[in-house]
Amino acid sequence: MTAATHSTLFPQVPASADAVLDGLDPEQREVATALSGPVCVLAGAGTGKTRAITHRIAYGVRSGVLQPASVLAVTFTNRAAGEMRGRLRQLGAGGVQARTFHSAALRQLQYFWPKAVGGDMPRLLERKVQLVAEAAARCRVRLDRNELRDLTGEIEWAKVTQTVPEDYPAAAAKCGREAPRDPAEIARIYGMYEQLKRERGTIDFEDVLLLTVGVLQDRHDIAETVRRQYQHFVVDEYQDVSPLQQRLLELWLGDRDNLCVVGDASQTIYSFTGATPDHLLNFRTRHPHATVVKLVRDYRSTPQVVHLANGLLAQARGRAAEHRLELISQRGPGPEPVYGEYPDEPAEAEGTARRVRELIAAGTPASEIAILYRINAQSEVYEQALADAGVPYQLRGAERFFERPEVREAGLLLRGAARAGGHSDPQLAGAEDVPSQVRAVLSTRGWTPEPPAGSGAVRDRWESLAALVRLAEDFVRARPDAGLADLVAELDERASAQHAPTVEGVTLASLHAAKGLEWDAVFLVGLAEGMMPITYAKTDEQVEEERRLLYVGVTRARVHLSLSWALSRTPGGRPSRRPTRFLNGLRPGSAAPRPGSPGFAGAGRPGGIERGAARGRRGPARCRVCGRTLTDAGEIKLMRCEDCPSELDEALYERLRDWRAEQARRLGQPAYCVFTDKTLLAIAEAVPGTESELASISGVGGRKLGRFGADVLALCAGQEPASEEVSQDTSEESPEK
User: Fold this and answer.
1) How confident is the model at residue 541 (pLDDT cuts 50, 70, 90)?
2) Considering the entire predicted model, what is its pTM?
3) What is the sign of the dihedral through the CA atoms of 712, 713, 717 and 721?
4) If you ran DSSP here, which 8-state letter would residue 504 be given?
5) Distance from C-alpha of 471 to C-alpha of 442, rounded to nearest angstrom
6) What integer pLDDT is reported at residue 635 of this predicted model?
């Protein structure tokens, strides 16, 4: 078996400490045997980092160097922590604590609260959105759903960066954050939110970290108690730690250095939450004598997929890019990545569903296929296309498997059947083995040998029950002597660890939600400028994070990789979209980026030129994206090369075209006498907010500004124009070229 690919679902526990090391490659073995002092593991995608660190912990425990109760392994999601606990249990190191930062901190806070503060600990607020909405209402601010979500995220960022409400405006400006509303207004709502929590005796998840840090800083006796308990720390996904989590880690450590961190700066995709790769990149500065191991053998993906992933990072810029890892595939060759261009988004979804069905027909399980997109709002058209194609699917990030009603109910029924002793239960008559007993029990709740037709709630319920049946079959293959009670115990262990079985269905997920997962076949969809990178990624750092997000998506694929985009949003729409700049020079027929071209990777406009810059500046006109001198009149009007990435607001462009058509009808003249297509494109790209910004656009003369300016600015602001009948003398101006 290769060093980092799949094992069976129920492997045998290694017979000895040395057996724990079997199957590790030289670099993974180096990680596993480095049991003291600071250790930094730089692990590329698919290189087996979780395997390396779980075998390190297990080897330390099995060899007697580490006591299970003295090890604390922390990561960022309950799923990752559950997977780590499951692997440690399979390696014979079941007593080790593997938790998220929040879970570990909450456990300590609950234990020490009576001693540190006294009385009952405040109630934990599960969801803060409702309280943020109330705080906004108290401040007389109306928020729609999206604004509420964004403002809640902004409050979370402030708290993990240890920014108090009154300091928020200055902190946001210093970090270059694009606040969803006026920073002073956000600070007021943030302050009111904190006041409401105090009034109601509640705390949120960020408070858990803040309060734990406060207790450990103020009470040295409590800090020493924690340090006596935990003497060895392992931090997974270290590139994602926030300043607050780093401070908590430092307090857990004290003056010791028994710390192993694992991460990859090229997979930093959560900076909007306060995460930063600086702690990973500065690890060797803080710990000059650290053991540093690089994992670059990619066991997940074929050479074709790895080549594309390496090519994406080769064009990257910034500090994280300077520390990128060049992956080396350990798999045999596979198919080349497939690129698809479609006229519109529904056609892209239908084409994707068709290819998914072909893969399934050729033998790829539906559970080994994923469709990944930039934002969750893109999922609906793919859900419909898969349903129309008769392909089952599951939405990633939905309800946890063991919390689904049908799974909880099935667990209760199986537990009851196990207590009854199997054969004394009439419904189990004739069921000789565990899988047969499970099938018999679950058939009373909707499981059938064949799936129901179509999709929806009935199909979702069946998929959950079918996953339990498959789990029972795998369990008995690994443990032929096991009974129903043993399976129930296994389900309880898995529920505790959130180690869910595989549900048979194509996965639909955002690129962020796909982090840490992998499939045989991955479809990356919607890869058009404006979505990848997303429109609001303006700075160098933001655009580079978008590139890393695409890199994460590419490296989820083991064998089959498809990348696609649509030229317009809706059928019949103007085909004005372009494929993402990140694929330039990588997809067939595309030109490689010009070396040193400013702005290629989103570096802003050359020479500090911004939208709406004053007309009449001296010197040649230059493309605001790549910096090339412009000579074509149409390109000068747009202030960019024809083939450079567009920042077009497509919806605004369509509104402008409709408005222009109405004005032309009133004038009784051709549409170009109002504004030419090129001028409308330039307006829809610049989205001017003032008359001076609108006037700076080529093709908007003083007379047209006076006659049409108010209408155009209203449209740019998302409002309806309130224009009067236009007069005929607009035609005095000559039509634009």
Assistant:
1) confident
2) 0.67
3) negative
4) S
5) 13
6) 62
